[in-house]
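User: I'm putting together a teaching handout on how multi-component assemblies are represented. Below are the sequence lines for each component of a complex, exactly as they appear in our records. Could you produce the 3D structure of the whole assembly as structure tokens, so the students can see both representations side by side? Please keep the chain order the same as the input.
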Amino acid sequence: GIQVEQSPPDLILQEGANSTLRCNFSDSVNNLQWFHQNPWGQLINLFYIPSGTKQNGRLSATTVATERYSLLYISSSQTTDSGVYFCAADSGYSTLTFGKGTMLLVSP
Amino acid sequence: EAGVAQSPRYKIIEKRQSVAFWCNPISGHATLYWYQQILGQGPKLLIQFQNNGVVDDSQLPKDRFSAERLKGVDSTLKIQPAKLEDSAVYLCASSRKGYGYTFGSGTRLTVV
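Assistant: Of course. Below is the structure of the complete assembly, with chains in the same order as your input.
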């Protein structure tokens, strides 16, 4: 099946800083999503982005399908951005495979 | 639209006991998934339903886990008997083509 690798595994930022999270995948994708898992464990869908660029407030994402990677940008980070960010992809079998996640801590 | 509903939110049981989790997907979503997330790891698929038929259950430990989706709507995941290593968050998700997955809040299971 498809392999999904995320980097970095951990990230510590001061409030107001910007960051870029990376997701590499091993096969062409029909679906790629970025999720934020909050401290209560809920997975919040940030972007459905099998290709192209999308923006939502301080967050944006870009997927370059031909080069098999996706980037999540967080600008002007806030303490509420803390948590684990997961990238997940499927290669056409309708089953998302998750990476190991990036744990982000934003300190005041 | 209403999200994916799961219950209970938390459950503590002793090993060898049985437990069941319930999921109600977003209305109109034909595909439903159960994922298991062990602490510190990403979610892993247990089973996928398309309407009330099983599409993929290759990673479901069938000697102790079972799942059903009656009438193509609600779904129940059961563990019997539970082991210590089943302690995890059990996540239900539903999807429709072109819109990605939406996850429920999950059920945190602790087996003692």
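A couple of points students might notice: The first strand of chain B starts at residue 5 and ends at 7. The radius of gyration of chain B is 13 Å.
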